[in-house]
Amino acid sequence: MSEIHRITVDPEQCGGRPTLRNLRIRVKDVLDLLAVGASPAEILEDCPVLEMGDIQAALEYAARQSDHPVLHVA
Questions:
Q1: What is the DSSP string of the chain?
Q2: Which Gene3D superfamilies does the record associate with it (predicted)?
């Protein structure tokens, strides 16, 4: 089931960057933690306001952002 509804964008918060549930936790922050090897359990322990659905939403958001055509200019 999609969790993308957890992603919020508010121009007045975090410079308009995507956040999770209007919290001041950017999607990028969660993705950066995962990229350096933090487990979802570690992230949830360090930031108890987050839920597993938030981590899934961040991953889903990243997957959607990376799915675009690449144009090559000759």
A1: ---GGGEE--TTSGGG--EETTSS-BHHHHHHHHHTT--HHHHHHH-TT--HHHHHHHHHHHHHHT-S------
A2: Winged helix-like DNA-binding domain superfamily/Winged helix DNA-binding domain (1.10.10.10)
